[in-house]
Amino acid sequence: MSLAHRVKPSHLGLLLKIAETQRLQMAAEAMAITQPAASRILSEIEGQTGMALFQRHPRGMIPTEAGEAFLKHARGILSEFDSLTTELRQLRDGEAGSVRVGSVSGPAVGVLVPALRAVRAKALTLSVSIGVAPSHKLIRGLEEGRYDFIIARLPSEGDARSFRSHPARVETVALLARDGHPLAGRPVGLSELTGAEWVIQDPGSPIRRAVEDACIARSLPVPRRVTDTSSLLVALALMSGSDAVSPQTQETASLLTGPGIGARLVQLQLDTRITVSPYFVIESPIRQRTSAVERMLEAVLTRL
Question: Which residues form the HTH lysR-type domain (predicted)?
Fold first, then answer.
């Protein structure tokens, strides 16, 4: 008999609690069952899979490789049950629903915010959660059921067929500096920035790779005087008191230098266009959209 006929949602919840607490007794208490019952459920599941899902150590129960795979799918399955429960309650109570979206920083500012404003104008009680993170973390969150859809870059490793994706756009990099920077107000070549102080994302990040590739393509050294940070607040603080420059997405730079926020920053007029690899709107192929997700997704896609 297959796992689908033998494993209940409560069993999946027990396995997640074991992974969380690393103690069978604590997991059993959290699920309001006895330890012998929890032990029997775990043994039955391991018997069905033919593999151990946890290693027993003095310090606790640690998931095996098979256990990690089981837990990943368990999170997704329970997330689907939670979505079903929530949607049925919303239909019963006439609520507008909720949407969980993840995005890299550029489209979060340039696409998600305008889309949210448009949707909220017609659905005032729509609950929207927006998470901003690097693409690899967003992909993991999508697989674990923590997002309804994400705006991110497809992973270089793994199978892109594991996702349902919609082509989006290529990001352009803008170079920010403090108002009154010596290089502001005129065209600037990358060669003039070889000795500059840079505040830039961590090594391997898409914007950093794009900047370094642009330098290498022009036989220029990559930035050497670098402060690595993924924090925009740290970048702003460092630029405010120095001649440091910081590459950001065009959407972020336009927001910071526009009249709405009016940060005392300028965009340097680079004579070179630097672009980042394209991002996509990505969904799980097995996750069913709610009406609220459909509305938000449509608003996003029309702005790409």
Answer: 7-64
